[in-house]
Design a protein that fits this description.
It contains one helix and three strands. The chain is α+β, with helices and mostly antiparallel strands. The protein has two domains: 16-64, Rubrerythrin, domain 2 (Single Sheet), CATH 2.20.28; 76-109. The structure holds zinc ion (ZN).
Length: 109
């Protein structure tokens, strides 16, 4: 179970990405992904003929049914999400190295 300070259920996850997501509001937002540049963006549902990518302007976008949408993923999309995945991998690697170093120290002494 992950609980970010216990405040995540109280209100809107403001301050993450700067765009408050309207979870229970009257305006449903849907996630889209650009098929050309893989930019992730949000658009209002029911917009005529879909949406266009704000990054490259392509209309080859697909609706993303956000299975993992939630307070934890708000603000991480597109390049930012990719970058965070990369940093997480690096961090994982560093932790493994540190653990390995500690183990060798213990064995050495
Ligand atoms: Zn695009």
């Amino acid at each position: 179970m992950r609980n970010l300070g216990g405040s995540s259920a109280a209100g809107t996850p403001a301050g993450r990405g700067g765009v408050p997501r309207n979870i229970c509001g009257a305006v449903p937002l849907y996630d889209f992904r650009c098929q050309r540049c893989e930019e992730r963006f949000e658009a209002l549902a029911g917009v005529s003929a879909g949406a266009a990518c704000p990054s490259c302007g392509s209309e080859e976008v697909e609706r993303v049914y956000s299975a993992f949408a939630g307070p934890f993923t708000v603000g991480l999309r597109g390049q930012a999400a990719k970058r965070s995945n990369a940093t997480r991998a690096v961090r994982e690697e560093q932790r493994r190295e540190r653990k390995e170093a500690r183990r060798q120290q213990r064995e050495g002494s």
